[in-house]
Amino acid sequence: MTINPDLVVIGGGISLAGESVARPMRRYLEKLCIDPPRVLASPLGVEAVSLGAVRHALDHTDRDLFDFHKAPSH
Fold first, then answer.
1. How many angstroms separate the first and last alpha carbons of the chain?
2. Which helix (H) or strand (E) is 22 found in, with range?
3. Which of 4, 11, 47, 63 would give a disulfide with 42, using CB separation of 3.0 to 4.6 Å?
4. 10-39 residue pLDDT tens
């Protein structure tokens, strides 16, 4: 492999299946990789994209309102 991630996160709606999806993926990667990554199902499920968008908006607002070292990025 040309990449060697430490962690694979299963996200979106399929992550609701939890270990039912993570376990077979772990077994497959153990056969394929010398140093297999950890495989986890995200607890965020289908709301991951929405939560990420809200976090991004909050970070942007925080920078614009409270970063006194830079001019606003409007």
1. 42
2. helix 19-32
3. 11
4. 998 899 999 999 999 999 999 999 999 999
Cα angle at 37 between 33 and 40, to 5 degrees?
135
- Please state, in angstroms and rounded to a whole number, the distance separating the CA atoms of residues 49 and 17: 18
Smallest CA-to-CA distance from 41 within 27, 20, 55, 58 is with 20
Tokens of residue 72, six digits: 């606003």
Contact indicator for 42, 15 with CB cutoff of 8 Å: yes
8 Å CB contact between 69 and 35: no
How far apart, in whole angstroms, are the C-alpha atoms of residue 42 and residue 25? 14
At position 66, the amino acid (one-letter code) is F
* DSSP secondary structure letter of residue 37: P
**Do 11 and 21 contact (CB within 8 A), yes or no?**
no
